């Protein structure tokens, strides 16, 4: 099911870039959490854990939909790609629309995670924060 779509005009696989960015962000977040928890011995707020868990679940769900329910193919003609369409899941929403909604929500929660990551440092004086 892991087929990287190829842009016919440029011959570049766009998903290689997306996969590289996702891996880069994931590795950096893992590094940051390890540094925060194991090295600096800082605590993580409960709201941050909830947002992290929710974002991870939504990323997993959107990735599963993206990888296992292909409903478009840009390497064929529009008529052939239309033959790949599937039944709608929820009223007018098909799997591709569901992927857009879940991935947008997971990106939003990831941004909220980044905003709340250091909320435990709000009461610490600036001169006492380890850089």
Describe this structure in words.
With 131 residues, the chain is mainly alpha-helical. It is built from 4 helices and no strands. Helix 2 packs antiparallel against helix 4 (95-116). The protein is elongated. Residues 1-7 have low confidence and may be disordered.
Rg of Cα set: 19 Å
**Using DSSP, what is the number of strands?**
0
Instruction: Characterize the main sheet.
Output: none
Number of helices: 4
Q: Secondary structure elements and their pairing?
A:
Elements: H1 14-39, H2 46-68, H3 78-82, H4 95-116
Helix pairs in contact: 2-4
Keywords:
4 helices, 58% helix, disordered N terminus
Short description:
The protein is mainly α and 131 residues long. It has helices at 14-39, 46-68, 78-82, 95-116.
